Amino acid sequence: MKLLYIVPKIKNAGGVARVLAVRANYFVANFGYEVHILSQNEEGAELFYAFNKKIVFHNMNLEGNTFSFFISLKKAVNQKIKEINPDVILVADNGLKAFTYPFIISGKTPIVFECHGSKYIEVKAQRNSFFLKLKYQFKNFGAGKFTKMVALSTESLKEWNVKNAVVIPNPSWIETEKKASLQSKKVITIARYSYEKGLDRLLLIWEKVSKKYPDWGLEIYTDDIVSLEKEAFNLGIISTINYFNFTKNIEEKYLEASIYAMTSRSEGFPMVLLEAMSLGLPCIAYDCPTGPRSIIKNHKNGFLIPEGNIDQFVEKLSLLMENSDERVRLGSMAKESVKDFSTTKIMGQWKLFLDSLLVKN
Q1: Is residue 322 a contact partner of residue 216, using CB atoms and an 8 Å limit?
Q2: SS3 for 164?
Q3: Residue 283 Rama label (left phi>0; alpha psi -120 to 50; beta)
């Protein structure tokens, strides 16, 4: 089988790039698929994650105003499809342009929309408006025009009014007996510096927590240390936080920590939670739409905090910092629970799904 992924970026350190690396590598190594990945404006960039050498990468350079951008997009995508001749096209893009693909792609090849984020994901705070409602309606309309849509959870699927969807979660790619000792006084988080990832909310929480527990430290792995440091400086907490660029040996960093904290405003099916939990870290996250609640079962394998409730987040984070027995209990349950998302199990679901598309086609 020949697959073509269409993504905005594949060479960065994001969660979508991570899960596509896991899946694409498995497709090639275990199923013998031929995998192509088409991204935009990444010519000359280095891959962050390790990909099988048989995977073929393609780039399209897109620029200009909205009109010229979409003319270039339509031309570039259809040229690549004609050149590659895939059996299935998979679109993994949260941007608005993703929902135009059913209308601009020529031919009868099955096109799958992979929903890696909330329908309501935004890059900055928004007020309710006619334009916003129109945008969400267009997303829903566009999603329904794909051959199939793959949601990462039943919670994600509830956001969409479509009849062409299936649910296949992300795989938990770290499968090891190793687990964190949970004795260090470290809280860890890994996220882009962006509105939807909510690191600004984490800093407000840490402002309160660090005063109570000055011997604890927060480690943040991100893509914009300078901007984050400015925010921390304005809150007077810069000295209590260690900032790092994204790293490829992230497993080591999880194992050195005792708690994982997530303060995103929206998520798909966060790989960082699967990774942290697979190494026995207790996790605490806001119940944002929609990913965390599909992985964390409140008080059973972590803490799920009502969206935006900073006081409760501080309370539960403080409990974990004070109580090593609770960290161990939740960490053990977390490690056990992510076995439901084993790579073998999830990739088996993908094979059945892709096979069904070819039968119908």
Answers
A1: no
A2: coil
A3: beta
Alpha-carbon gap, residue 308 to 278, rounded angstroms: 26
User: Cβ distance 259 to 313 under 8 Å?
Assistant: no
Q: Which of 80, 84, 31, 74 is nearest to 59 (CA)?
A: 80
Instruction: Select from 130, 152, 174, 157 the least CA-distant residue to 280.
Output: 174
Residue 361: the pLDDT is 63
| 245 and 156 part of one domain | no
167-186 pLDDT per residue, tens? 999 999 999 999 999 999 99
Can you tell me the distance from the alpha carbon of 210 to that of 197, in angstroms, rounded to the nearest whole number? 21
Give me the domain span that covers residue 214: 186-340
Please, where are the H alpha helices in the chain?
Answer: 15-31, 66-84, 101-104, 130-143, 154-157, 199-212, 225-235, 250-256, 271-278, 292-295, 310-322, 324-337, 343-360
Residues 230 and 305 in one domain: yes
3-class SS at 14?
coil
CATH for 281: 3.40.50.2000
Residues 6+ apart with CB under 8 A from 16: 7, 9, 92, 94, 116, 268
Domain count for the chain, please give it: 2
Q: How many CB atoms lie within 10 A of CB 78?
A: 14
The answer to whether position 283 is within a domain reads yes
Sheet holding 148-151, edge to edge: 56-60, 34-40, 2-6, 88-91, 111-115, 148-151, 165-167
Do 46 and 194 sit in the same domain of this protein? no
What pTM value is reported for the model? 0.94
Tell me the β-bridge partners of 286: 305
